[in-house]
What does this fold into?
Amino acid sequence: MTVISRAVISGAVLTESGRARPYAASRPLAIEELQLDGPGPGEVLVRMEAAGVCHSDLSVVDGNRIRPLPMLLGHEAAGIVEDLGEGVDDLVAGDRVVMAFLPRCGRCAACQTGGRLPCTPGSAANNAGELLTGGFRLHRPDGSAVHHHLGVSGFATFAVVDRRSVVRVGADVPPDVAAVLGCAVLTGGGAVLNAGKPLAGDTVIVVGLGGVGVAALITALSLRLGDVIGVDAVPDKLAAARDLGASAVYTPQEALDAGIKAAVVVEAAGNARAFETAVQLTAPGGTTVTVGLPAPDARASIAPLGLTAEARTIVGSYLGSAVPERDIPAYEQLWREGKLPVERLISGRIRLDQINEAMDQLAEGRAIRQVILFGT
Ligand SMILES: NC(=O)c1ccc[n+]([C@@H]2O[C@H](COP(=O)([O-])OP(=O)(O)OC[C@H]3O[C@@H](n4cnc5c(N)ncnc54)[C@H](O)[C@@H]3O)[C@@H](O)[C@H]2O)c1
Ligand SMILES: [Zn+2]
Ligand SMILES: [Zn+2]
It folds into this structure.
């Protein structure tokens, strides 16, 4: 096997967070030429085909989520295996893989919880902006290191990632569909299936209808249980949810005024007000699943009495409480059987050099999922 030693790639690098909007003018993300080391032991070189633009990328750009900089962003992506590092013998060049944004070591106590807890060393590597195998594979021409985003750094023509950051999918899965399986579907789908666990007849409400929320909505619809209701502040998002088959759609205030309640409520908006709404919409005995990642200093107000007297549960869900190598193939199969219309999440297809404009669209609530297609 020939291990490619070093390559020059193009990627969207964030050097400073918190620049003023519009990003089309302030241009926080610069397309830079970087050097990418070849895959080391336990690593994989992937040629990127598609990468989705998630709010968790925007949160690094706007400073709501503090990450070490400079960082090559992007964590929802899919591509083709080009080369394998030493010891990787269960993939071959040419395989299509989906990136999982939190690699699992498979050995720590958290990894024994069936997805309920995020892997401890995987989370530490993500917080440090390193690969789980340790350190950086990305360098500027002067040799200085560029951090990895969640072990993926998908806004780039190529990536070197830990083997445990990829899950193989079939060649029949289109690249844009494969990309969104890695974050929006894994997170939104898992919020319903792994964390909310609705039963026959249960109503499911999704608060926040971006990529993650719409993935939760289509997953809930695929179960054919009770009503599936969408809540968002933006009218276009409500229209999209209705088109997808939601039983009803409401703005947050309308939902509260109508007094609707559900056994499972998924919050996929990422702010404290939406979280409060989700808790208020949860029926006695029901579960609020919170997926959004608000700013670290955000605080919510809820009435503890209702939680006790109505025996309700609030549960946080990261990575869809998923085991990616178990769950991504399951979503892939549901998609193949026509039960999970994942392509309906994709509201725009763009080029890598349109990434700043894409961040504006996302910040303004004008996109469900925009996907960068490479090589177009
Ligand atoms: N837990 C995880 O593992 C995980 C994974 C991916 C994303 N996330 C987080 O999930 C959240 C959603 O991500 P996304 O990419 O779908 O974001 P998005 O920006 O595409 O969608 C958020 C939606 O919430 C709506 N919204 C905002 N405030 C609202 C309110 N008060 N009530 C109802 N709706 C409201 C917006 O109009 C928008 O449609 C973000 O916070 C993101 O960082 C978490
Ligand atoms: Zn994401
Ligand atoms: Zn682990």
Remarks:
- The domain at 6-171+341-373 is CATH 3.90.180.10 (Quinone Oxidoreductase; Chain A, domain 1).
- Residues 54, 56, 75-76, 183 surround zinc ion (ligand 2) (CB under 6 Å).
- The chain has eleven helices and 18 strands.
- The longest strand covers residues 43-53.
